[in-house]
Design the sequence.
């Protein structure tokens, strides 16, 4: 544990940030699994709705620093390609 006030506060904040980031990553992964399930079911309308939700979560993750912006763009592009492949 930290010996003075400032490092102790930084440790507390880091733990709070870690838990919040973990929660958001878990939520993103859950939505990704739902999206993949709708793709496998060939339900285009539900898949496009889920893509909108997942894209929003990915953007929020990039904005808050959970994901790098290029990683977010790459993931969104790959997800859209999957939808377009079953749509065509």
Sequence:
């Amino acid at each position: 544990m930290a010996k003075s006030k400032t490092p102790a506060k930084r440790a507390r904040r880091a733990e709070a940030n870690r838990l919040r980031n973990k929660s958001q990553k878990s939520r993103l992964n859950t939505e990704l699994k739902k999206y993949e399930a709708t793709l496998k079911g060939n339900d285009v309308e539900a898949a496009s709705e889920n893509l909108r939700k997942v894209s929003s979560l990915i953007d929020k993750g990039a904005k808050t620093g959970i994901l790098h912006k290029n990683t977010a763009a790459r993931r969104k592009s790959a997800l859209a390609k999957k939808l377009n492949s079953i749509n065509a």
Remarks:
- The chain has three helices and no strands.
- The two ends are 57 Å apart (CA to CA).
- The mean pLDDT is 93.
